[in-house]
């Protein structure tokens, strides 16, 4: 018996925001002063660091729970299950439902309840709740689902990661170009097949790192200081992730009993291409090995950073042959890994 992902789904918004669309933005420094470079230079530098060429924004009439519902329905259909048989719905997000052109988050009721309502599930014993765990939220939701199943509290769980970061960015901050919208979902259940989740690792670094990502006022000091936007200390995050994510992945792999040579794919949170490459390189270096070519699939170039949605979306795209020639074969050992606000880190070793 194993605990496996038996169905996946994702929702990728249709609206594309290209890097050239930022040429007309008024980017400012954190103190409100002007940046002494034209936007073309700012965007070019951004592109070279992050690898992002374009990102997706949700349609104006949709909110995060809508995206989560659409991804969840696909995962249910893919797993070919009766939604009434789901024991837990775990929805990872960070900002709730934020309607277009508003500044207020709506999390009453929780997004998982809204998604369960949209799925028209009648069973009251299907428990729906949200998890706030930064970008690693979907992976943490999978870890919690596994725990419920191991404890005999559940046989089948639906785990969703959904976000509309485009609604909480400061358009005067260069970092706003990183963020995007999207949703990914998966069915986690007990299976007669072998493999599945072999090991997991989670950690919360808060002593010095808690506010590496935070809510802050706009770089445009003419705007209300009471309206807050997602902000980050990018250099601190990079240095933190490089050391701690690689180590968490190493600890997780060693616990699984899988040899580094057996790892076929590393599906890492799509935060920043250069950072992700450095983490994976550091991870392999811890085993005195070189990272194999194509071991780290990337979707960030066209989808940007959609927080909790990046890893499940990446997995779903590969499973369905929608990410170039990337593929995962039966029996392949893969690693899921993420880092985000908290600062939280987690990883899963999974045998497909």
TrEMBL record:
SUPFAM superfamilies, per database record: Thiolase-like (SSF53901)
One of the protein's GO biological processes: fatty acid biosynthetic process
Domain of life: Bacteria
Keywords associated with the record: Acyltransferase, Transferase
All copies of domain Beta-ketoacyl-[acyl-carrier-protein] synthase III C-terminal, residue ranges: 253-352
PANTHER family, sorted: 3-OXOACYL-[ACYL-CARRIER-PROTEIN] SYNTHASE 3, BETA-KETOACYL-[ACYL-CARRIER-PROTEIN] SYNTHASE III
Protein name as catalogued: 3-oxoacyl-ACP synthase
Organism: Winogradskyella aurantia
